[in-house]
Amino acid sequence: MTMNEQRKKVVIVGGGITGLSAAFYMQKEAQEKGLPLDVLLVEASNRLGGKIQTVKRDGFIIERGPDSFLIRKKSMGILAEDVGVADELVKNATGQAYIFINGKLQPIPGGSIMGIPTEIGPFLTTNLFSLAGKLRAAGDLVLPRKSVSGDQSLGAFFRRRLGREVVDNLIEPLLSGVYAGDIDQMSLQSTFPQFATVEKNHRSLILGMKKTSPKKAPTRHGAEAKKEGAFHTFRNGLETIVEAIERHLDPDSVLKGVRVEEIERTGDKQLLTLNNGQEVEADAVILTTGHKVASNLFAQHGILQELGEIPTTSVATVALAFPEEAIVQDKEGTGFLVARSSDYSLTACTWTHRKWPTSTPKGKVLLRAFVGRIGEEAIVDLPDADIERIVLEDLSKLIEIKGKPDFTIVTRWKEDRPQYRVGHKDRIAKAKAELADQFPRVKIAGASYEGVGLPDCVDQGKAAVREVLDDLFE
């Protein structure tokens, strides 16, 4: 058998960050280990990057999708290094964040980790909760641990430990913001399993988070060091990493503007039918599309159908650029979240010029407002002008705005945010088991499955690469 006959082909479907990292690491492994392997990345749209979309206009750097990633989750930083753009990483500027409730911007109490208090002083003096609410939250210090078999909702878990008020006024805006979801339906196991572990190991969430959080480093004179930013982005926007990965990929290995319509199995091979009429034979497939596409592709085979039932929600973002003098802000800080009890369409707003100073020209201000969440999605379907007007009306009640923005950019993400409902982990395990049984060389990875953050997606892409290579070249 000649070397050519032994060559293997892997097709990666979907060119978002999961597919891109899978393609990059697959090619890297093949080159470094001299594997007889061809990689093909198939992307339905005419661009790579998926939700990562950076707009550059009049000196502003504006993100339509994610604006950053957590530094403590290492894989994005490692990927940046591997593709040669680590020197372009910048950290967010830290500053006070607020919750908008009862008509006022209330500072998020210092020492709260995802809403869980770890310092008593700021928690006692905050106006976010009544005295009764504070006393109920303090009950966490004496409440017994409860072992729940299986999954539970975030809302049920946190209300049991800390009471309704702390959950509604602080934890809900913080946690639901990540997923644009309903915490009373969101899975604890699939979103923040670490909190269940804290309860199991330490009983009290407050004491457990205090013990397990990294200590603040003192400076030479004994004072606390200035708080470091926990997030990274790139000086010229997140698309920096997309462009860098694309430069590293073999140009013949990327197919844009082409959609996979069917996947069949013939023996050990997978046969992919593309919408341009082409057929591609692959030894293995890594499917990094959203869960609904995956479910539709395998409908004819009667598997992955529960994936199609994973709900999604729609959100929109509005970037608003102003001259500095147009915005009168009496609050220092980097942005705010809006409690559900407030009668506003706005769900959050980042003062981007403060959080990411490299995004905004001197003498300018950049705000990024968010609308739409589960149950409140109609606004996303309105025309741009209406969304802009509603956002400006809401913002004007919170900060003084003089005159109109220089420009606005409205971005809609329709049916886009996967909702990790209670039992999500079991649904994903079942889908993977169905594939292992009927299509053992097809892997699923991406934001719909095991984490929505950019590093989570990169981790899933890399894990799929390892599985495929172990299978093909064991």
What does this structure look like?
By secondary structure, the chain is of the alpha+beta class. It has three domains: about 10-50 and about 245-310 and about 420-470, FAD/NAD(P)-binding domain, CATH 3.50.50.60; about 110-210, Orthogonal Bundle (protoporphyrinogen ix oxidase, domain 3); about 310-420, Protoporphyrinogen oxidase, mitochondrial, domain 2 (Polyamine Oxidase, Chain A, domain 2), CATH 3.90.660. It is about 30% helix and about 25% strand. The strands form seven sheets. A seven-stranded mixed β-sheet has the order 8-7-19-20-21-17-23. A five-stranded parallel β-sheet has the order 12-2-1-16-24. Strands 5-11-6 form a three-stranded antiparallel β-sheet. A hairpin with a 4-residue loop joins strand 14 and strand 15 (about 280). It is globular, with a radius of gyration of 24 Å. The two termini are about 20 Å apart.
Which secondary structure elements does this structure contain, and how are they paired or packed?
Elements: E1 8-13, H1 17-33, E2 37-43, E3 54-57, E4 60-63, E5 69-70, H2 75-82, E6 89-91, E7 97-101, E8 104-107, E9 112-113, E10 116-117, H3 120-125, H4 131-138, H5 154-162, H6 164-179, H7 188-191, H8 193-202, H9 205-212, E11 231-234, H10 239-248, E12 254-256, E13 260-266, E14 269-274, E15 279-282, E16 284-287, H11 291-297, E17 312-323, E18 327-328, E19 335-338, E20 346-351, H12 352-355, E21 364-371, H13 384-396, E22 400-401, E23 407-418, H14 424-438, E24 442-444, H15 454-472
Parallel strand pairs: 1-2, 1-16, 2-12, 7-19, 16-24
Antiparallel strand pairs: 3-4, 5-11, 6-11, 7-8, 9-10, 13-14, 14-15, 17-21, 17-23, 18-22, 19-20, 20-21
